[in-house]
Amino acid sequence: QELRPKSLDIKQEELGDMVEKEMASTSEAIEDAVRRIEEMMSQARNESSGVKLEVNERILNSCTDLMKAIRLLVTTSTNLQKEIVESGRGAATTQEFYAKNSRWTEGLISASKAVGWGATQLVESADRVVLHTGKYEELIVCSHEIAASTAQLVAASKVKAEKSSRNLARLQECSRNVNEMAANVVASTKSGQEQIEEKDTMDFSGMSLIKLKKEEMETQVKVLELEKRLEGERVRLGELRKQHYALAGVCEDTPEDGDTRPAPAPRRGILKKPPIAQKP
């Protein structure tokens, strides 16, 4: 009792209840996140179209898959915790087991909170992205946070689990699935961001006549600059080829006046038959 951290001044029954309440709260947060994503999907279909609708649907679908993976992870983690408590508590009660292993219990509570918080933040970020008031980078960061908190939850559960436990194997499989779904969110977010930015650069519908004229002139300047650069590169390419032919013996020596003439082609009659290619 003296060695227990003073910061955790909670009664045995309260500590045991905290774990169950936190896991239930996390499950609730994930269910709420799934519902909110479905609402956002419906709203996006009504308020957007074309490329924006395609991007929003792809991002929200990947978020939905991630939420489903997290929900399965939390369920499996809860089953594993029950198994750990039942196999390790002996004659003690569940609350006494949690109190005796307070540091482990704290780890579970912290990891569970992190998973629930990450899911909530992901949904809020997705909502802002769909409404065009947020940043795509927020979704990417939230996905990384969820992957990290998932690893924390698995590590906390693995400490006291039997190596041969089926629930532990399922939990590790669920963790890999969460990581894969989080990576899908990152991929769909990045590709969606590129699509939207590419479309926005070619959207001139909101420009005034003066703005359009200015953009037109600036584009003409860029075209002329690129044409001049292209012509310069073509001259350079010609000089490189000329030098290449000269080194290969195709061109005659350059006379003093700078006139370069190609060497006369040999008569067909004296052409030698090319040697048969030998196999290496």
TrEMBL record:
<dbReference type="InterPro" id="IPR030224">
    <property type="entry name" value="Sla2_fam"/>
</dbReference>
<keyword id="KW-0175">Coiled coil</keyword>
<dbReference type="Pfam" id="PF01608">
    <property type="entry name" value="I_LWEQ"/>
</dbReference>
<dbReference type="GO" id="GO:0006897">
    <property type="term" value="P:endocytosis"/>
</dbReference>
<dbReference type="GO" id="GO:0007015">
    <property type="term" value="P:actin filament organization"/>
</dbReference>
<dbReference type="GO" id="GO:0080025">
    <property type="term" value="F:phosphatidylinositol-3,5-bisphosphate binding"/>
</dbReference>
<keyword id="KW-0963">Cytoplasm</keyword>
<protein>
    <submittedName>
        <fullName>HIP1R protein</fullName>
    </submittedName>
</protein>
<dbReference type="GO" id="GO:0043325">
    <property type="term" value="F:phosphatidylinositol-3,4-bisphosphate binding"/>
</dbReference>
<dbReference type="GO" id="GO:0030136">
    <property type="term" value="C:clathrin-coated vesicle"/>
</dbReference>
<feature type="region of interest" description="Disordered">
    <location>
        <begin position="251"/>
        <end position="280"/>
    </location>
</feature>
<dbReference type="InterPro" id="IPR002558">
    <property type="entry name" value="ILWEQ_dom"/>
</dbReference>
<feature type="domain" description="I/LWEQ">
    <location>
        <begin position="7"/>
        <end position="248"/>
    </location>
</feature>
<dbReference type="GO" id="GO:0030864">
    <property type="term" value="C:cortical actin cytoskeleton"/>
</dbReference>
<dbReference type="InterPro" id="IPR035964">
    <property type="entry name" value="I/LWEQ_dom_sf"/>
</dbReference>
<feature type="coiled-coil region">
    <location>
        <begin position="207"/>
        <end position="243"/>
    </location>
</feature>
<dbReference type="GO" id="GO:0048268">
    <property type="term" value="P:clathrin coat assembly"/>
</dbReference>
<dbReference type="GO" id="GO:0051015">
    <property type="term" value="F:actin filament binding"/>
</dbReference>
<dbReference type="GO" id="GO:0032051">
    <property type="term" value="F:clathrin light chain binding"/>
</dbReference>
<dbReference type="GO" id="GO:0035615">
    <property type="term" value="F:clathrin adaptor activity"/>
</dbReference>
